[in-house]
Amino acid sequence: MRHWKDIAAAVRQGCRLSAEDALILWHDAPLWSLSELALQRKRAVSGDKVYFNRNFHLEPTNICVFNCKFCSYRKPKGSAEAWDMSMEDVERMVQGYVGSGVTEVHIVGGVHPEHDLYYYADMIRRVKAILPDVSVKAFTAIELAWMINRSGLSIREGLQLLIDAGMDAIPGGGAEIFDEQIRKQICPDKGSTAEWLAIHREAHLLGLKTNATMLYGHIESLEHRIDHLLRLRALQDATQGFNAFIPLKYRNFGNSLSAIGEVSIVDDLRTLAMSRLILDNLPHIKAYWVMYGKQTTELALSFGADDIDGTIDDTTKIYSMAGAEEQRPRMSVADMRAMVSRVGFRAVERDTLYNEIDND
Ligand code: V47
Q: What predicted TM-score, i.e. pTM, was given to this entire model?
């Protein structure tokens, strides 16, 4: 068995990590060493830049046909905490951002039993009619697989229909953990790993950029995390279509896995650094401040992250309902710039496709 120091030396030379070496490094290397390695890789990709954007989320519904055990957001139809926005509600909300400077709307929600592909294509068209210059990053692969399957179209045809309506990119949600046995335990009725990967592959072949996530810190092992990252790396080798990877820490309030608690901040930082090191072909690693909280996000910037997501404007409920510190997540551009410069990096505003926006 190799020593972590030998593996670290190989990584410093640019060698790709195998599953076996990744496990040794993840398990044995001291935190400071993972920080040093991940920063070296981050610097090679994005220098001293850390990206952010001006965005808001649109979560049209939390009614969902699936019942994932880690989810605090989903409520059954008829529950006092369930919502289902009408198209007029959606338009009213989007109108509120005219002239605000936002460059992205991130649309995700529950997999509603009645809303179909044509309904969501119409929603995208209405959003674009109000905010024509804003990028629509929409629907997890799980939502997409559901709506496209029900339409009778192929994945390619379904995605093309949404692209024609104005969809510009796909967010990374719904990946959870790819290992089929763990997936069966935490989200038994949800769309499969194969479906998630097929949607992203097809999107990439159509020229769409997408993100990827991994839900960690529940019942999975380090081997499962490494397997997840290696499956993403393999798809990225084939398509080059992923823009960013976002590790998502399991937050335990208000869902049926609550009893297992949450992992430590050291686990968060190791996971970020190892994601940067294993995903040597993915340009951006995002520390999603809404999920980590602001303090962990600051630290994350010394562990390979080069993106902190966006201003959000208190428009997402997924993490507040799961117990995250940020109960009304909102950050100003000045706050984001200050956070990045406190760590010693340079904040750079980007659009959804990582084109830099010069607002200085
Ligand atoms: O798919 C749900 C996760 C995801 C919990 O692509 C939970 O730029 C932790 O994917 N604890 C949705 N995580 C969020 C997401 C995302 C967020 C920000 C940026 C991007 C992007 C994508 O949230 C879900 C699921 O994996 N999630 N419940 C929970 N209790």
A: 0.98
